[in-house]
Design a protein that fits this description.
3-stranded antiparallel β-sheet, two-stranded antiparallel sheet, 10 helices, globular
């Protein structure tokens, strides 16, 4: 993935149950974003850490965020990392750098890396019709003459929608005590002749004309990786991404009870504050149901910032 990923030299990585206020952050701490200090400027950097910690602590209280973990990466190194709040409301266990959060859409970056690995190995062409990789024709039925490509899916321009739980509950709801594999449902939901197809899956916009975020599109990309490699995406990502980056506590195994150290799990809440069980499943898991810690995720970000290189090796 070396040629395809670039990011500013300083990155702040956050994992939490709620997003922090970007407007508030920019107004109050724009000096940290616009004027990053030198890695060797210990005193100045320390003062900015104090300012950052104060801001985060304020937001945890103001927004009633149960737990949050953050890290700052500069020049390929973690220069600051800390957990805030409590990872378990009942036990009051403090969140740490090893607390395991559910990432939500941050997981989409993992799918993108897996796709680019196939591209670099010559197994995938970003501008090829995805029908070639899936083994059946996929088109936006509103624009049947326009091919759907991996590039369109990566840039959220394929015309796939992002239905909510009321519109397509089979895809967007959470499931317990079940294993859902992409190969068992993708085709039936995205092509008009599929048993579970619903027109709302596709937007009435021409592919390539607008950007519209889609969990379905990212899931389709993960399934293409499965088709190319012959491996379940959970297994592929562990073997070729997480293991290689020594992200030993990270996995798409939310469906499998006992897969994670229970002492590290952060409580899971919905946006309205409902607490969920520790292990849940979703058909579109690749787009959001990744469990990781800030300690592990920082390794992933270092690799991204270094053009795919981590500890001297390119992945």
């Amino acid at each position: 993935m070396k040629k395809y990923f670039t990011i500013p030299a300083v990155a702040l990585v956050l994992l939490s149950f709620l997003l922090l206020s970007a407007v508030s952050w920019k107004k109050k701490h724009q000096d940290i974003i616009l004027h990053p200090v030198s890695f060797d400027d210990k005193e100045n950097l320390a003062s900015k850490y104090d300012s950052l910690e104060t801001f985060i602590q304020e937001q945890v209280i103001i927004n009633a965020i149960p737990a949050l973990a953050a890290a700052m990466i500069q020049n390929g190194k973690v220069v600051w990392m800390k957990g805030f709040g409590v990872q378990n409301i009942d036990t009051k266990a403090s969140a740490t750098e090893e607390t395991l959060f559910v990432t939500s859409s941050i997981a989409k970056l993992v799918v993108a890396v897996a796709v680019m690995q196939q591209k670099e190995q010559g197994k995938l062409n970003l501008d090829e019709d995805i029908s070639k990789y899936l083994g059946y024709s996929v088109r936006n039925p509103n624009y049947p003459d326009i091919k759907i490509t991996p590039r369109l899916l990566l840039t959220h321009q394929a015309g796939l929608s992002n239905p909510n739980q009321n519109e397509v509950p089979e895809l967007t709801g959470f499931h317990v005590d079940t294993v859902i594999n992409m190969k068992d449902w993708v085709k039936d939901f995205i092509i008009p002749s599929g048993a579970h197809y619903k027109p709302i899956i596709w937007q009435q916009v021409q592919p390539g004309t607008i950007h519209s975020s889609s969990n379905m599109g990212v899931t389709l990309l993960a399934h293409i990786v499965e088709k190319i490699t012959g491996q379940d995406f959970r297994d592929y990502s562990t073997k070729y991404i997480f293991s290689k980056l020594k992200m030993n506590d990270t996995a798409y195994k939310m469906h499998l009870p006992g897969s994670f150290d229970p002492g590290k799990l952060a409580d899971i809440y919905t946006i309205n504050g409902t607490k969920l069980v520790d292990y849940i499943e979703s058909p579109i898991y690749a787009a959001g149901l990744l469990r990781t810690s800030i300690k592990d995720w920082s390794k992933f970000m270092i690799a991204i910032m270094n053009g795919g290189v981590y500890e001297g090796k390119e992945y």
